[in-house]
Amino acid sequence: MGFDISSDRYSILATPVGMSEQSPLPTIAQASDPLVMEKGTRQERENNGEPQYVITRSGRYSIRWHLLRELDYKLYTKPSKEYILIPVLARSPATLFRFWQPRLDDSPPAWSLDDLYIGGSEISAAELMDHFEGEPTISEWLFAPHSENKKDYCSADTNGSLVWGAASPGHRAITTQELIINEGHVLQFKLSVGCGESQQQQQSCSSEDSGVTLQYSLDGGVTGWQLVRDSCLPGTSPDPDCIPYSYHPQSIFKADIYSHWTRITVPLPEKTWASTTQLRWVQETVGHGSKTIPWSLDDVYVGDPCPEHCHGHGDCLAAQCVCDEGFIGESCLPVPSASSPLPTSLVDGFEAGIEANWLEISGGGVGLGCNSLAPYGHGKHLYFSGCGTRHAITKDMDARRASKIMFVLRIGSHDNTPSCYVNLGDPQRALDKGVILQYTINNGIIWNTINVHDPLDFRKARRVAYSLPYEAKRYGIQLRWWQPDHDGTNTDHWAIDNVEIVL
């Protein structure tokens, strides 16, 4: 098979499959992702004289093969990737490539090749937009194994989305072609994880490892894939891009929060800025026989940012906002309504359950797990002991005239009551098990920190009060109480009560 690669900066990539006892010379087929060889583990590999696996190319009308890369079998006993830049002399209108293993008198070890991509461009695209109304195109995407295009998935009125169903096996991922990512570029997409599963399955601790991870690579994955956004926490911040007092979790999306279609906007950090950046959404299966959580992707945009990120209430398309209903202007500001105004205050003691003040409560519910929060709180409280994400987020509020936030907080207990204790044995993680109070003016794209509450200071219930920051005195803000880290279900408990936001 010949390839016309005379004009662009082409490269070869590929990834691995299984092996057989006897494997014929593989044929070249256009696909996409990085280049991989997988060798057998036969005894003859111990022989130093065993030939290597060779990638060669031939130009138009040529009978001579030129070496591109010799692959030492010792480096490929496990599946791995190769990324090869095609030299200028090989960029002809009719170039042939072959993957060749020289003949031996003895039977050579088997090998296999998968995820082969030959292509590329001298200049990568600086923008990507795809609504997945059809299958992914090779000009924008590499592989999307085990996916299928479906309309109206997860009760959404869509013309199509990519779906990885519960029955789809193995590696479940999709990777972009190389993109130019510059300062200020943003990634926006819609995601659902666990749609169609029961609420019990979505919140099950067994699904902890079934999240969808957002990663990036600058070299086709040869040196591995890294998280687009690592966790930035009060006690531990492994990501050098962390900004002081700007705390957020990793770019891993799980069913406890993302079971319904959710628009996610990620300002791309400096580590992703390059002319060869690829982005990947991947869900690894936990193991043979394990439960696989379905997930779906739609409306992907990579490019220049929209004004104020559309305040989290609109789709960003070519740097222009397409606002959700009820939001207007070039940055999708909320529209004050006389008929259905946003609340200007909040008072909740949780005695009557969870009132209409809360948009989302995850990992907790109304109960008596931390006993009495006397003398500042009495009776029921909002109690957190579940696995996965633990947070409470208010609905949108009109905080233009609000002045104070007050609440009662307890994290664990001095006597380590079984239903209300916190493990502070690891000093590095101790502060991360605290509770962070934050606010957002853009529907959760960026959370701004008001304060971090150290468990050492709150093992006895305390009432705290804060002046609302000037930047938070807006129409349409939300507040969040969030515990970034814990040891799992029924550990590192905490509770809040008597929450008040007053004028």
From TrEMBL:
One of its GO terms (biological process) is central nervous system development. The keyword Zinc applies. Oligomer of disulfide-linked homodimers. Extracellular matrix serine protease secreted by pioneer neurons that plays a role in layering of neurons in the cerebral cortex and cerebellum by coordinating cell positioning during neurodevelopment. Regulates microtubule function in neurons and neuronal migration. Binding to the extracellular domains of lipoprotein receptors VLDLR and LRP8/APOER2 induces tyrosine phosphorylation of DAB1 and modulation of TAU phosphorylation. Affects migration of sympathetic preganglionic neurons in the spinal cord, where it seems to act as a barrier to neuronal migration. PANTHER family: REELIN (PTHR11841). This is Reelin. One of its GO terms (molecular function) is lipoprotein particle receptor binding. Pfam families: Reelin_subrepeat-B (PF21471). Belongs to the reelin family. It comes from Halocaridina rubra. InterPro entries: EGF (IPR000742), Reelin (IPR034968), Reelin_subrepeat-B (IPR049419). The keyword Hydrolase applies. Keywords: Calcium, Cell adhesion, Developmental protein, Extracellular matrix, Glycoprotein, Hydrolase, Metal-binding, Protease, Secreted, Serine protease, Zinc. Residues 321-332 form the EGF-like domain. Its main location: secreted.
